[in-house]
Fold Transient receptor potential cation channel subfamily M member 4.
Amino acid sequence: MSSSVESQCVPHPIPSHPLSSHPLPSPPLPSIGKAMVAPGLPLQRRCVSLQSWIPKIIKKRVCTSFVEEPSSNGTTCQCGGPQDLHGPVATGDCFGAAVVSQWESAQHSSEYPTDAYGELEFAGAGRRSSHFLRMSCDTPPQVIYSLLTTHWNVPPPNLVVSVVGGEGCEKVKTWVREVLRQGLVKAAQSTGAWILTSGLREGVARCVGEAVRDHATAAPSLSRNKVIALGVAPWGIVHNRQQLVNPQGSFPAKYYVQNTVQDSCYLDNNYQAFLLVDDGTVGRRGADSRFRAKLEDHISHQKTGSGSIEIPVLCMLISGEASMLERMDLSLRTAIPWMLLAGSGGVADFICDVLGALVSMSPASALLEDESDGTGVELREVVLSIYQNRDLITVFSGEQEGPDDFDTVLLKALVRASKRVSSDASEYTEELKLAVAWNRVDIAKTELFNGDIQWKYDDLKDSMTDALVNDKPQFVRLFTENGLNILEYLTYGRLETLYRSLSDSSLIYTLLQRHLSERLSVSSSAPSVSQVLLDLAGDMCQPFYYHVLDVELGVSTRKSMKHVNKLLLGECSYRSRRCRSPWVSLFIWAVLQNRPEMAVYFWEMAGESVLSALCGCYLLRELSKLESETETKLSMKELAQKFENLAHDVFSECYQSSESRSFKLLIKKSVMWGGATCLQMAISADARLFFSHDGVQSLLSQIWWGDMERNTEVWKLVVTFFVPPLVYTSLIAFRAEKVSHKKDKSHRSSVKRPFVVTRWRRFWFAPVTSFLGNVLMYFLFLVLFAYILLIDFRPPPPKGPAPLELVLYFWVFTLVCEELRQTLFLGNATVVQSMRMYIQDMWNKFDLTAIVLFILGLCCRMFRSSYEFGRAVMCLDYMVFTLRLIHIFAVHKQLGPKIIIVGKMMKDIFFFLFFLGVWLVAYGVANQALLYTYDSRPDWVLRRVFYRPYLHIFGQIPLEDIDGISLYEQNCTHNTTLIEMGSEPCVNPYANWLVIVLLVVCLLVTNILLLNLLIAMFSYTFSKVQEHSDIYWKFQRYNLIAEYHSRPSLAPPFILLSHINLLVKRYIRKVPSRKIQHFGEQEQDRLMTWEAVQKENFLVARNKRHRESDSERLKRTSSKVDSVLKQMAEVRDHDRRLRQMESELEYCSSALSWLVEALSQSNLMRSTRPPPLPARSLLTTAAVQHDPRTHHD
């Protein structure tokens, strides 16, 4: 052994118990699970637990028999360690040592508890700690894999690439570095792979570590797939390994690296974990080979994250020594594929040459020609064994194929291994599974879906599930375009499977678990999903999946839950049925998980694109209100805005195509979305941008004016309202009668009404007329209410109330009837759902408050004891009724946004009052305590603490309580008895100066700081709303139009007649409303087809704009430039080969010329003619012969 190696050797700790030549038995594997701890524990508790179980399960190896190295004169053992580091027992058996001629780890070393494990912190590296473990070469690989994934929190891989060879100080070629950087690490990063190397700062391992570091630095911080670099190295060759030794574990161990420029056997700080394999040797390589092969074989039988295929493992040989042949043969016997880098040198080139030679001849005849040498025979057997598994070997020539083709070659290499292992599956299916696992849709398009293969449904369904679960929308699109029928694929059972695959950290998973706990169920099912959607969408649409569960609409929740529980306890036959709307179900599933690309693709495939986009926007905005993570909430809001933009753009395409059809599109009830309309969903989703569209506003204007022309002046409406016969004149212009006839036909009205009735109905049934009548009557109501409060509010019975007050009571009764109609008799929702929808509107809250106060005041004013209180309540109620009048300003384009501004400013005032209240209380209490030493009157104390400081803001400052001169002129007393009897207490003049200071500070903060803060908040709110005032007004206008469109034509108090008429028509005669447009099934199908065509036009135009964008042009130009550069590289390679061939031909020509000349001068043979000349010489001779100048000479 060289002195450098000897100097690196460190003493092994000598155990205190007697040494044995046999290794200690390891504990049984079932005890591992009991000793291990959950990874979520705090670091200190986790370290204590690791200290307790790692030494019991994982061992190290120590040489226990000194076998003399023949060339060391008895100073060194064949294990590599010097004699003085071996214990007396190891060196005392001289007879055994003399008999043994070859040291073996299994016989001459023993296992003891490991003394090096924990976390490793590289001094000066500036990165997070790595994990390390010293372990015996006989450690079970399943223990190490569990340690890596469970306790060290290393993510399970989708691929494992074990890089072997290239060790030592051998210089790595430049193109090999590029293959490792641009090929291996880049492909591994896209798949979430593990890369196994020695983990040392030398050779290929150092290049891999640098490539992993560079890619991790350049990758986005939110990238899901991280490249995990793991080092598996012999313990005996690691430099400074004594720094890692600590029987109690190191958390962390300080590790110092010297001479970081040159290659050395120090650990590389770019690796996440180090497995240091110990076979008892020191300073010798190869201790990790057997364990590494077993670990690769164990990982190859584990499942990927999706759980459908086993983790693919690939060994990559770069250069390498002769010992790699046995290592390669061992892995090939376990069906582990290998990739050889041809041209990297060493064993890799040797095997490539041998395989190329054996292909052209019989392997047996080629390898059995000479059997004289025993070593040669053994080598030929290993090579022959490797050749027999040649279908697992792939040769990659980086000089010819380039780093960009590495992932394709890698995929094909793994497919060969999958084909051998999976004999029942086709080659293409296994290759497809690997491509899906790695999310390499580009390779799948070029290699698998290029038109040569006819894919069937059974071949794609499993991969489709993997693509859906793992959020790979490009593969979902690829499968649906190449033979997968979504109607056949998506059953309700498979849909429940998709919901069971939700991430534990997602919001929808939490919501589903909440409903599952209520039903005591263990897995997601259609009822729980339906209940979550009902909670999110509220009462906007009918519940989803109720038709599948045979639950009737309108049934109470308790009855429906009982029915669902009985259904789930049975066979659940509904799970084998196909989904009625598969694309919509998948769209909802993707939206609930906040998957943008997947949700947009499903929206493109689903029908009713405008309504679907608005529903997605609504669900996402409701989810964002429940989400606690800020980043996830922002992404939900962004996706919601994207869907609103899509709904706006598609409707723009529809409106440009046909105005009348686009109007029908907005008011059509959707069977797919539970009876909701586009307008209802847009108002629930707060889609202001959608409402600002000209087409939506045009429809609202048409509904607002009814059958009248939109340009009718308001004064004509007012005059006609007070003089009804003017309806039959030309003062009011109506739209063409054919529109009315078409409308009557659509409503299936077979009654032909006379002109007098028709004109009368067309005027009085318009929402604008109903609005005008309600406003005028409401003004009259307020006048009557004010008159009664100011003039004619009589005492309790029997003297009162007055007749006009009884009229007021009846008027309010009609208002109550109208509110009940809006709450209970509007739509098909249940009573609870109707009340919930009613209370959501702010103005309905005003109405409810006003009615409750009026009933309270009415009850109190009827009794003498509570008469005054009832009158006070009536006065407050009048204020509420009057403020309700603000609602009518929503119809005005300039005043409508001001209502929103006032509402938002009220929220600003609450924040301002909070800060103001803090200062007022602080100043008021201090001021009262300083001015008055004693005052037992609570009302006066509260007045001076709260009321007086508040008046200071408006300049009302009592100088007699502050001015020191006027303090002695007051009529007051210090007698506590008189003060308790009601006398004014005297002001304490002691801290008069402090009172003035506090007053100055209070006025400075309140009048300058807080008031200016309030003004700034108001200015920000005003500018924010005013900037988009048109959008706000158009959105607000819908509520007013929808309210008066559904109201009866008569205003209170005459509205009671309309209520009686509606009761008779709807519930006795069963006459449908003329205000709700009904569409036949054929008309709905035509409308949906037309909408789908317009959506396709929009998508085509959008894709065209995307292709013509600068970024896409740059991408296409870049790909073309890369293709040209690749072709130029091939041309240069051909040119190099041609030049080489020309030089060889020139050499052959000169050699032949030399032979001809030599033969011509020798006596061996005589020729009757001279040797033939080269073609060029012949042409030159002919030219000379035909030259006239030559003949002339």
